[in-house]
Amino acid sequence: MEASSLGSDLPLVRRLEAVGFRAWPAASVAYDGSWQIRLTGGHPSKRLNCVVPLDPSDYRDLDLRLEKARKRFDAYGRALLVRQTPLSPPALIEHLGTKGWSVFETTDVMTVDLTELELPDTLDYLPSHDIGRFIDANLALDGEDPASKSALAEIISSIKPASGFFIKETPQEGPIAVALCVQDNDLAGIMSFAVSPRHRRSGIGTEIFSSALRWARISGARSAWLQVGSTNAPALALYRKFGFRKAYQYHYWHQDARA
């Protein structure tokens, strides 16, 4: 694994990590030094249940701190995960590798300059402020368990920056596309974007995605960011079409077996 900070714009990484935390808030946030420990009992999202080291120089007492974090995760019924960004100490990442940990998922963080992006002059879809309607549509399109509705509602209701919920529905099929855009000062994050399999490649996804970015720009955002699985080729192709480019990657680590 390459050094975590190699070739990265660390001030940009710090800023995107900060807005990312605000855009998808965990129920419980604690700190051990510069390590952020994020836990959410009601929802299994990895972003809401992980340890995120935020200072490359903070790597003292690794075994002790990882064990303390594990106990916190055990109390929530969660497996301990470490999220490696370019801010993670290389010594910690090397330590994880020697202790039987491995990477099981990689995500690209992508950005685009909204001020130079060609977007429609009008919004094809106006943002909704109906959280319940958005959550129902999002769960249906993602195929998630409806029982997670209350937990997802709690997460989305906790988002402090301005949020726009974009929903496309038909009388026959119900929801066919959704997008959630969170505008934090001059940065806008696309937190959820999904299109029904039957309507992919029809232009509907492009329309609703364009509307979310247009709304963000009208509201004062100058840049947009998003996170996408590094192996999700169709999504990556769409985002690149809009001008998004990779700013950095992050990796999730778990321990295959206790050493």
Automatic annotation (TrEMBL):
SUPFAM superfamilies found in the cross-reference section: Acyl-CoA N-acyltransferases (Nat)
Keywords: Acyltransferase, Transferase
Family annotation (PROSITE patterns): GNAT
Source species: Rhizobium deserti
Coiled-coil positions: none
GO molecular function, one term: acyltransferase activity, transferring groups other than amino-acyl groups
Identification of the protein by name: GNAT family N-acetyltransferase
Residue span(s) of domain N-acetyltransferase: 121-259
